[in-house]
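Practice problem: predict the structure.
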Amino acid sequence: MSDIIYTKVDEAPELASASFLPIIQKFAAAAGVSVGTKDISLAGRILATFPEHLKEEQRQSDDLAELGRLVKTAEANVIKLPNISASVPQLVAAVKELQTQGYALPDYPESPETDAEKEIRAKYDTLKGSAVNPVLREGNSDRRAAKAVKTFAQNNPHRMGDWSADSKTRVASMSGGDFFSNEVSATLDKETGAKIVLETASGETVLKDGLSYPAGTVVDATFMSAAKLDAFLAEEIEKTKAEGTLFSLHMKATMMKVSDPIIFGHAVKAYLAPVFEKHGDALKELGVNPNSGLGALMANVAGNDEIMADIKACMDARPPMYMVDSDKGITNLHVPSDVIIDASMPALIRAGGKGWGPDGQEADANCVIPDNSYAPVYDEAINFFKANGKLNPATAGTVQNIGLMAQKAEEYGSHPTTFELAEAGTVKMILDDGTVLHSHKVEAGDIWRSASARKAPIEDWVNLAIDRQKAEGCRAIFWLDENRAHDAELIAYVKPILEAKGVADKFEIMAPREATRASLETITKGENTIAITGNVLRDYLTDLFPILELATSAKMLSIVKLMNGGGLFETGAGGSAPKHVQQLMEENHLRWDSLGEFCALGESLTFLADARDNAKARVLGEAVDAATQGILDNDRSPSRKVGEPDNRDSHYWFARYWAEALAAQGDDAELASHFAPIAKALAENEEKIVSELAAAQGKAVDLGGYYHTDDAKTAAVMRPSETLNNIIG
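Answer:
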């Protein structure tokens, strides 16, 4: 196993790797540090799942499973780039692309009927949504802005949209019948197995068997009423029209890969309710699945003039929709994977509560977040900025985050225990001894789910928070609502640990709404705070606050201290990656910013130095920090426009600053001697390298694919400077 594993992923981060990874490997090798790769891309995972359908030379090892074993060891040192959390449309598109490349993969069965189709569907379902993160995250999250990044953001504040006190933008959530209001929770006093059953008038159906929980596990259960969801959506569509704002839906159909796509489908049906009422049978015959989005629906009914006319009439009568891409007519309801709340809501808040409408103009919006569990965070943020005006990045403090995510904690680990119920009855979670732990009366179409958080990750999370607060000395808040069933069980863990460690006076416990206001008040004063949260809030807040503070969440340090001693270093979010790829393919300009990769690399090398007592790795890591500072201080980050410096330019400058720092340091003469001529060559050839990189831009390029690119073609596109390549090797 290599000293450091650099993950092979998808889209813009992977394209950037084609340029940056050779630099990393060249520099690391000089210090005797090996950097290998493991393929966790969507295409790679698809190929690894169906070896029996492939030729011998096409087969691929299951790198994700291998990494899953590695992260449970003290030797793990993994740099994880953002990968696709696939929605069904993305999965289907990736399969089709691979098929056109000669891989004899089976089609994705939308409605499996035979046993063989059900088996294929079950395999594909393991690839949907957040299939990677729960496997690799065998530790809790420590996310914060690197000091150099925060300082740069304060000295070079990004543009913020102006907030008006009379803004019509608001958040709408269900007042009952949602996951929040129906939640029950219990902490198990002993190890046990369990099953989930649906009892109906016609008998009992086992929904899930063979569940196993260690003692101390917090086990939740809840459901969303389909009828109340539909009533809520219909009401909000009418309210939005009356208010004259944009209708927008904000969820996470990628991570919550069972529940949220279903809720998304309800929204599509609600928006086009007259069409579904009139043409329901015809739509079903045409293979329409509202869960796949408006884009797929339109493709299915193309050519049916009557239905298309009714869709247009319906949309004309509805409130205008929040747009993902106004120029291309891509609406908020087009594709479920475009509905990513942790990216969409911060962007709207940063823009002063404005979203883009179908007319290409900005407008206020009704932000529909059906479940009320975390909606208060965004509601309170909007209320705060309406009252106080926009945040000033030049003076704002920072919100760090310690997140409970190890071992599939909380809702993100609920996929195998989430069900859309076919008929009315009572769902029960029954323990091995016959005890009914949780029970809910449900109706047909309701969405029921169970989630859990284990004792060891919870205790590790609290202790990590204690360590972080001690290091920072700032305000620290556990975002837990004593009136929410799950949070009450966590509070029962948190308080005794804080008291036993003698630090209870250094922490506050607040419900998410109150914690949001307290945190915004704190950073507005230029002070810092630590948000200690569960898994979903970890995801939401580590986009919300960085986007407000830094303009992006891709520049955050994201350190996962693995529970068995290893380290996982994440490089930030990849939500805008598809647009970056599109621009590269059309204009050969990649605006992806690799700052997250720079930060993760420095942390990984420092971790390696500590774990292996490797002095050379420490020198490399310190030089990475100097290079990162150089990128920021000299404004060497990528530009958004073709013809200006892009991602590849930033890698040249990073390599140069890294080499110069290594040549100048006095801790390791051998490394200084090795890198002095490299630094000299990079500096002397600056004009030639920069001109070669610039000359590559402006024309469409062929990568050989989108999900499964051709390595040689990608390398040619991403390493166009022969001079730089000759120096790096």
